[in-house]
Amino acid sequence: MLRSLVGSEMCIRDRSMWYFRPYGAIDPDVRNPTKWNFDVLESVPFPESMVQDSADLLRNHAGEIRREFETSLESRMTAHPDAKTEVDAGHWDWNFLYGTTGKNQDVCSRAPITHGVIQQLPVTYNYGFVFFSKLAPGTHINAHTGSTNLRIRLHLGIRIPEEKGYTATIRVGSQHQAWRQDDVLVFDDAFEHEIRYDGKSERVVLIVDLWHPDVTTQERELLSYQGFGPFGTKGTTKRKLD
């Protein structure tokens, strides 16, 4: 259980953790994060049972979160910064509570209920995000993987259109799962994933990144060390959290 930092490589539980691992097209059912790959962490494409309590908490507050988004945040959505590289059709917008720069105080202040719920969850602030995500009809987010397998990603359905003959889904690995209104979809974004959204109206979810439950408390403390920049990059972080 000894934790140590050696140069840009971290060893935890005597296993290696690569500082940077470029993405390459491989078997979609094999986890392939772009930066941090902690190979002792087990997972599957849709691991809801691993974070059941957190998923239930979000479900219980779905209505409040949705109303807060619609009244205070929806008009302030902007283009997602990854849209330039990951979207080849349509539009992907966002509004973040926590991102690479840390806490977005303005958004958190406008959404105090949502912020309060998030504070009750084991969010991985240094290796993840919390943001509202909107897809326009006809949007295609290309196949890609997330930066790390240290996290599990939750999508709370804020606005999921119900249309005859069409069900909006996300592909993770070789599996597909549908979003449901006011429900939570859980997946491991270290697996290759892709979205082709062909609904007739906009789809909105709240995205929350949690620590993988098998990352120990000591490991979370080490991985959150302020000497790391966002997502474990080199250099002292200047991110503001709570």
Describe this structure in words.
With 242 residues, the chain is an alpha+beta fold. Helix content is 19%, strand content 30%. The chain is built from 6 helices and 15 strands. Strands 4, 6, 7, 8, 10, 13 and 15 form a 7-stranded antiparallel sheet that branches. Strand 1 and strand 2 form a beta hairpin. The longest helix has 12 residues. The chain is globular. The N terminus is likely disordered.
Features:
single chain; 242 residues; alpha+beta; five-stranded antiparallel β-sheet; 6 helices; 15 strands; globular
Question: How does the SSE layout of this entry go?
Answer:
Elements: E1 3-6, E2 9-12, E3 15-17, H1 52-60, H2 62-73, E4 78-79, H3 83-86, E5 87-89, E6 92-99, E7 102-103, H4 105-110, H5 112-118, E8 130-135, E9 139-144, E10 151-159, E11 169-172, E12 175-178, E13 184-187, E14 193-197, E15 203-211, H6 217-223
Antiparallel strand pairs: 1-2, 2-3, 4-6, 5-9, 6-7, 6-8, 8-15, 9-14, 10-13, 10-15, 11-12, 11-14
